[in-house]
Amino acid sequence: TATTEIYTLSLHTLFRSGEINKHPYNREAWVCLALLNNHSGNPEAAIEAYDYALAFNPDDSAIYKEKGIALINVHRFDEGIVNFLLAIEHSKETDEKFVTDMSNPSDNNTYMYWLIAHSYYHEKRFSEAKEYYLKGIKSDPKFIDNWYDMGTLLLEEELWSDATVYLKKTISFEPTFYHLRFSLATAEYKSGNRKEAEKIFKKYIKKIDLRGSPESVFEYIDFLLDQKENDQAFKIIDDIIKNYPKAFHYFFKLRDRK
Asked: Is residue 258 over pLDDT 60?
């Protein structure tokens, strides 16, 4: 992209000018180099540059945060968690504020809690992930990502009733998350609330572009098949089968039931 090209050009300019070599003990120069490497698609070099910056200032919470993000971007989640925890520890000393474009957490660690939970989630360490999602929710209940990811995690654990609580809260923040309503309907159905599930499915099925995102309605197809409403299921499958090969799975499942 044009942005990446600009960052790459800036990085090359730094090298040509010898800026880093002129100021080997300059924290800002190493941080700049790290950021440029990150944006240029070279996260490993960015991590190394962050290490140099931290060698000169080992109490810099912002650098620990940025290094942690670079680490999880290359799936080094355990190391990322260590750096996020260090960021929290040192932010208490510097009163560093961590915010995102998505929210303005009142607690300066809300975003960090989400990053830690996100990392644990990817490591399939669900107990630790839930601990930090809950910390994030407690520190700022309006930060939607903690609610959303907690609900998704609980769905994966098949804790259907618990999942509905977090999915409903997420939807209250973002009513246009129509695909999430299908997950909520599935959770309601698995929890034994068949009528509520059917109500949600039928209300929002018309708001989903079947051809653009057919995966959003697979839960509904399963629901219809479980209820032996085969004709309605077949109608939906027929509408998406040309654009999404996975629909064949439902076609054969339906055929076997007839």
From this structure: no
